[in-house]
Amino acid sequence: MAEIVIAVAGKVSEYLVAPIGRQLGYLFCYRSHAETLNNQVQTLRTARDDQQITVDEATRKGDEIRPAVREWLNRVDQITGEAEPLMTDDQNMSCLNGWCPNLISRYHLGREAYKKAQVIVGIQTARNFPDGISYTVPPRSATFKGYEYFQSRDSTLNQIMYALRDDKTKMIGVCGMGGLGKTMLVKQVAQQAKQHNLFTTDIFIDVSWTRDSKKDEEGIAKIQQITAEMLGYQFKGMDESTRANELKQRLQKENQQEKEKEQKKEKILIILDDIWKEINLEKVGIPFKDDQTICKLVLVSRDENRLRKDMGAQKCFQIKHLQEEEAWHLLKNTTGDFVEGDQLRPIVIEVLDKCGGLPIAIVTIAKGIER
Questions:
Q1: pLDDT confidence tier of residue 113, bands split at 50, 70 and 90
Q2: φ and ψ at 299, to 5 degrees?
């Protein structure tokens, strides 16, 4: 009987003493708990910064960040914010001008610091994403087909792609005489940018109306409307200036804060093709003079000066004529192998020479030969 009583008493003592010891530990070891919390917070912040690098890289590629990752990042921000006031030494830990220790404050600090540290350990352990941090979603984008590959233009194409990746370059020009294939080249640029997830949205707009000065108002409204439609935005105003202000706000970084919180950063490519005179981008509502824009512009024109001086293109790329072998392959691909015949080939080569390496002229001649 005595043994049973002793066993019961020992168990009761265990249940009573352990909690009391823990409570006293909060009081007398409050500095130690605060220091432990501080170390845990620093470790967690380092882990968050490391995770954010991976998230930013995935976002730049156009991937969607998984909800579990966004939730983890939000939990880190929340717990570190809550822990900040607890990481202190003697603030409010004494009373009577320092003559008497404030036991209640020390107890609360020790207890809260201990509990927050345990929560942080759990959050650190939860940094495990077996499905990865992101997934690929098909971006809203125009699909361009019919691009004819020319080896001599590889270098130009690669330089344009490099410029699109350069954060300092906001406006790019593509120039060359009519018929060289500038339009098809920039369409291929858009296609490659899509494949490499450089942008979340690409917008191609024909602005050949710039030949006629009487169509300025109509043309600007067209650019505004097409851009808004591709972005899924509905204008609230009806006049040009109101729409310009709305579009500018939509395309500026400072208005992307909510999207950034959700890890949905946007990057937009706008291609304006066949520019004949300066387009007032401010009237359109496309920001381009500072670092606050989330879009890049590719401008296409026959006149390099118009792109550089009038439009302010930072870099311009000149499209050159096709080489002789490329011109022949283009014609043969359009007509078929029958142009290789001994009687027809000399005539075709002579006609081809007069095309001057212009793809549009070569294709026109080839279609005439087909008939």
A1: confident
A2: -110, 135
Give exposure, 106-134, as e/b (b: 16+ Cβ within 10 Å): bbbbbbbbbebbebbeebeeeeeeeeebb
Of 60, 307, 292, 299, the residue nearest 193 (C-alpha): 60
DSSP 293: B
- Taking CA atoms, 142 is separated from 145, 189, 265, in Å, by 10, 12, 20
| Residue listed under structure tokens 């000065």 | 213
Write the CA distances from 55 to 44, 61, 69, 124, 264, integer angstroms.
16, 10, 9, 17, 11
pLDDT top residue among 353 and 102? 353
| SS3 call for 168 | coil
User: How many CA atoms lie less than 13 Å away from 371 in the CB half-sphere?
Assistant: 5
Q: How far is CA 260 from CA 52, 207, 268, 346, in A?
A: 12, 32, 15, 62
Per the CB < 8 A criterion, the answer to whether 231 and 252 are in contact is no
**Is-contact 239 222, C-beta < 8 A?**
no
Whole-structure pTM value = 0.58
Residue 41 has pLDDT above 90, yes or no: no
Q: In the 8-state DSSP scheme, what is residue 298?
A: E
Q: How far apart are CA 197 and CA 320, in angstroms?
A: 28
CA-to-CA distance for 53 and 39, rounded, in angstroms?
22
* Cβ neighbours, 10 Å, residue 301: 26
**CA separation, residue 173 to residues 130, 270, 314, 327 (Å):** 44, 12, 8, 25
Torsion of CA 69, 72, 76, 77, to 10 degrees: 70
Assigned token pair, 319:
């499209």
pLDDT at position 317 is 95
The DSSP code sequence of 31-77 is HHHHHHHHHHHHHHHHHHHHHHHHHHHHHHTTPEEPHHHHHHHHHHH
